[in-house]
Amino acid sequence: MNNKYYRYLESIGKSCFKKYFDLFSDEKIPNKLIIDEMHNKEKYTLNSCRTRTYKARWIIRNIDNAPEDIQEFYNSCRKIR
């Protein structure tokens, strides 16, 4: 399961995860709003935006089970804000 965290983070991209961390981590914000925001600002494809959003939210929901270096990266994103 640990490999899933690395694959997902690589798929999202660390810079994207950091940039959109506040949106990804706020469960009150619907996926569609995040997807539209990324699609308009970054010019990613809609499919890419969906993938990044779902994978980022999966990492955040399951962070307690993540490898230590993934947790450290997650914590560094939280401190930036």
Order of helices and strands: HHHHHH
- The residue fraction in helices comes out at over 70%
Structural class by helix and strand composition: mainly alpha
Largest sheet, strands/sense/barrel: none
Number of helices: 6
| Count of discrete structural domains | 1
Strand content: under 5%
Low-confidence stretches: none
Radius of gyration: 12 Å
Q: Globular, elongated, flat, extended or rod-shaped: what is the shape?
A: globular
From the N-terminal CA to the C-terminal CA, the straight-line distance is: 29 Å
Mean pLDDT across the residues is 94
Write the layout of secondary structure elements.
Layout: H1 2-12, H2 14-19, H3 21-25, H4 31-42, H5 46-61, H6 68-80
Give an overview in words.
It is built from six helices and no strands. With 81 residues, it is mostly helical. The protein has one domain (2-80). It is globular, with a radius of gyration of 12 Å.
Task: Give short descriptive properties of this protein.
81 residues; mainly alpha; 78% helix; 0% strand
Please give a quick description of this structure.
This protein has one domain (2-80).
